[in-house]
Structures are given as C-alpha cells and as structure tokens.
Amino acid sequence: MKPKAILLPAAEMPRQWYNILADIKLNPPLGPDGKPISPDMLAPVFPMNIIEQEVSTQRWIDIPEPVLDVYSIWRPSPLIRATTLEKVLDTPARIYYKNEGCSPPGSHKPNTAVAQAYYNKQFGIERITTETGAGQWGSALSFACAQFGLECKVYMVRVSFEQKPYRKTMMEVWGGKCIPSPSSETKAGRDALARDPNTPGSLGIAISEAVEAAVSDTTGKTRYSLGSVLNHVMLHQTIIGLEVKKQLAMAGEYPDIVIACAGGGSNFAGLAFPFVLDKINGKEIEIYPVEPQACPSMTRGLFIYDYGDTARYTPLLAMHSLGHMFVPPPIHAGGLRYHGMAPAVSQLIEEGLVTPKTVNQLACYEAGSLFAKTEGFIPAPETTHALAQTIAEARLAKEEGKEKVIVVNFSGHGLLDLAAYEQYMAGGLKDVFLSDEKIAELKDAIKSQPVPEQLKSMRK
Amino acid sequence: MNPDELDIRCPRLGSSVSFGYCRSCGDGTSPCFKIFDCWWERFDVVAYFKERLPEEEFMQLAGTRPKPKVLSLLEIIEQARRNTAGGGND
Which is higher by pLDDT, A267 or B69? Predict the structure, then answer.
C-alpha cells in the first residue's frame, strides 16, 4: 500500500492565522456621504474583539489555545494525493486535495465558527444568533457554540427547513435552536407572515430576524454571527492553507497551481491567502478562484467605482463591474448578472495576484461525479467548481507534458446535497457563453465612471 | 414548457427550489437578484421576464446586484433598531 494522505502531526498545527490585510491595500467602502464606513458601526451585532480583527492589519494573529483545542477534534485535516483521479485522467500532474469535509459538520465552516464562538464567549456573550439556508453554516455554528457553552439560535429559511430535516436535527443534537423563518419571534418575521402566512421565507428575512434577535436583547448578552465574506472570517480560514504549506513541505512539494471555489470567498481565502503571501514575496504560483460561468464578474469586468443599483441610491464601491446600467442580452443573460465581488478578492485580481476562472454547471457535476468515482468522497456542489477547474488543469498539463503540482480545496462533502446530483443525472444542462464583442460593448458603456486608485500591495 | 415546474439548486440556500420560488423570493413579490444567473442554462429566462415585466422593472431587475455585506448589515441593523423601538415600517 502506498499512502495517499499527508497527515500533519497535531503538534505541528499552525498557531497563528495569516491576515492578508497586512499585505494588501483596499479602497474602503464609501457611504452615501462619500466618506468611508466605520467598522464600529457593526458593534450592535459583533463583539469588539471580533471587530478589532475585522480591521486589524497585523500580519500574524495568535490562535487562542481553547480554539486550537477544538480544532484538534478534526485538525490538522488531511492533504490527500488524488492518485486514482490522476490515473483516470492519465495526467502527469500531481493533484492534492485538502479535505475540509472531515470536520464534524462536514465543511470548512467551523474553522471560523469555533473562533467566533470563542471570541463571543470571551466578550461575555451568552447567546449567538445567525441565519442559515440549507443549514451548513447553522450546523457549524451550533457545533461551535456547544464547545464553548453558548446558546445558539439559528433562523433557517423555511423552504430549506422543510427540505433538510437532517441539518435541523444536527443543529439540535449540538444544542442549537433551529427556527423556521419567517417566525413569530421577531417583527421582521411577523411582518413577513402577515404579508403571506404560507411564505417559504428567504435569506433576507432570515438575516433580518437573526440581527433583530441580537439587537433587541436589552441585556447585551446576544450577538450575531456571519460565516462568510467579512475579513475576520477569511482570517480564521487561513489555517487551511497554512496547514497545506506544511504538509506539502513534508512531501517535498510546492504547488504550481492553487484552486478553490469562490462563492462567499472564505474557503478560497482559507486555502489561497497564505500562498498569495508567497506570491507577493516572489514565488511563481498560479492561484485560481473559481466561480460559476453564469457569473464571470471577476474575469471580464472593469475595476471601477460603481453604484449598487440602477437608481444610484447605494454607495459607490470599488469592485469589478460591468456597470449599473448593464442589461443582460437575451440568451447569454446569466453570464453577467452577479457582477460584484468581495473587495479583498477584487483587489487581489486587480493586482494580478489571483486569476479568476469560471466553469459551467455541466462540467461541475461531471467533475463531482468523477471525483466520487475515483477518490470516493462525494463533494458538496460548490466544491465541484474547484474540482472542475482542477480536472481542466490536469488535462492541460497532459497536453503540455508538464508535471504540475495542483492543490485544490475540498471544502465540504455533499452527503446532504444529493438532490443536486439527482438533477444532474436526470440531464438537461447546457452551456452558453457571452461573446467577447458583447463584453467590449458593455465595458465601453461605462468607461466614463470614476476609477479607484490603483493600489499596489507591498512587494518584496 | 412551464418554467414553474422546474427545480434547481439554489446556491445561496443550498437546497432545491422551484422557479416559482425564485420569481418571488426577492422581497416576497419580486424576483431574486440571482435569477438570471441560476436559470440561464435551463431556459431563456431573460426573454421570459422581458415578456412579462414593464421595461423599467426589467431594467431594475437586470441592474440589481448584491450589496457589500457590511453595507447590507448596517441597513439591517438600522431596520432592527426601528423594529425594536416599535417603529418598524417593513
């Protein structure tokens, strides 16, 4: 037997997170008055120790010992050589996947849930509220709160609540209270129910309920928790990439390509940011955030200050965009609809430190199925985006005859997402592309809008 | 083909939803801001809405994007404060 997994000894688990804000500069979000928004305005929902992390520019931040204790339940997570997949692809590439699906809730989410629960506990908070769709984040936070003796209340969008009873049960086994949203517990929920007693709910309503539950607690002992997008979330996830670097060193390897899906951004950040630091310091490495082809904002937009809506009511933000007046053309419409990107990722793209890629639905599910047949684990649907790009790169390596080292983040298993695979196996997907001519036309339409300062990070 | 009979995996929720859900989940009555993203590979969703929405509403749907998280959180906090104070207007 030849070992596939590279197991980092527990004593070698990283003791610090990497904070990319030490090494990149960001154009701040601007309020309607044109002034930068202050993070202190988030104090009603987050404890100050987390807000401090949100704005910190300290490069290395110590991981508290109690957080490491909980991480040690499943961390260091294995880095596994995908030898069977390599063989099927007949590629000279060496493919490694970081298995974040082995955490108790089955994804990378507890890397930040555990840290956030700890910091809330340290701040004297007794209960945390959040929203969840199908329950991946809600179950991660319930697990984390159980570890620190915190109450956890999860507002789960009703349509998912009814479809995913096992996620609800997971939360409750960990002691979380899972409430279908809209609920009668908050004014936001009651208003939604008054409009339609049979409403299936939405993430917007669930977030409003979770925030209201935190803000309305006059004891000050309740806060809200968010599992994606914000800086402190990405910070906590960097343990993924930091472990990978140590594991690859054990194997005498260094990646040519690092790949992760870029939905909310946190699993991409977790694997990629430590390698971005290497790239800033001169390493030759390609780093690919992967998004659905329906949303090629990162690949084809312009980096400008843009409004969030056609009426120009929302603040100007530095982002990749095709402009607020963009109207999708028939047939190809979806390709550009979701054309806003997290500022930190936009900045990395702008500086050429990461190179976004897009994949289509069909390729994703083909990749997920192939991965399951070869490596065994059934990936979560979002994870299949990264796997599709990985397979494309492995095939390219074969064409080029190059022995590339590819590292991909296996961000979670898909054992509670099997309906998505059923739909794929039932067929019906097709691929559509937006023409370069149309992209050029759209860019030309917004060329008069203000352009943010082209910031550059510190380079060695 | 009746699109309302189709299901798709919602990337935001992580579970299966019907096209009918996506048509109304934005604020209870208007479409989700990602509806073109999610459905374009299944049928001509743009033509569907062009036929059914007034041009201004179609333009608004086409131009809508998610707000940055910090901004949307601030708005939700302000709304929650109004709700808590008894002055909510949603």
Answer: A267
Chain B residues in contact with A192 by the CB 8 A cut-off are 28
The residue among A363 and A328 whose pLDDT is bigger is A363
CB contact under 8 A, A334 and B76: no
Contact A187 B83 (CB under 8 A): yes
Task: Kindly state whether A30 is in contact with chain B, defined as any CB-CB distance less than 8 angstroms.
Answer: no
A:B CB pairs within 8 Å:
200
- The residues in A 105-124 lying below 8 A from B, measured between CB atoms, are none
Can you point out the beta strands (E) in A204-308? 222-224, 257-261, 286-292, 302-306
Chain B residues lying within 8 Å of A431, measured CB to CB: 41
Residue of B6, B15, B19, B39 to mutate when probing chain A, most A C-beta within 10 A: B15
Question: What are the strands, taking DSSP E only, across A56-158?
Answer: 60-62, 79-81, 94-99, 127-132, 151-157
- pLDDT-wise least confident of A198-207, A351-360, B22-31: B22-31
A310 touches chain B (CB under 8 A): yes
Distance separating alpha carbons of residues A392 and A285, to the nearest angstrom: 17
8 Å CB contact between A412 and A383: yes
Measure in Å the smallest separation between the Cα of B14 and chain A Cα atoms: 5
State percent of chain A over pLDDT 90: 65
Closest CB from B40, B58, B68 relative to A29: B68
Q: What are phi and psi of A155, to 5 degrees?
A: -90, 110
Q: Is a pLDDT exceeding 80 seen at residue A306? A: no
* Structural domains present in chain A: 79-102+233-445 (3.40.50.1100), 126-220 (3.40.50.1100)
| pTM for the whole structure | 0.86
Give the confidence band of A338 by pLDDT, cuts at 50, 70, 90: very low
Spans of all domains in chain B: 3-84
Question: A418-427 b/e with 16+ CB inside 10 Å = b?
Answer: ebbbebbeee
Pick from A166, A128, A140: which is nearest to A50 by CA? A128
- CB contacts of A423 in chain B (<8 Å) are 7-9, 16
As a whole number of angstroms, the distance between CA A269 and CA A265 comes to 6
* Chain segment A85-126, per-residue pLDDT in tens: 999 999 999 999 999 999 999 999 999 999 999 999 999 999
| Contacts with B, A 168-187, CB within 8 Å | 186-187
Task: Report residue A341's pLDDT band, with 50, 70 and 90 as the boundaries.
Answer: low
Q: For A420, which of B9, B64, B77 is closest by C-beta distance?
A: B9
Number of residues that this document lists for chain B: 90
Q: In the predicted model, is pLDDT for residue A56 greater than 80?
A: yes
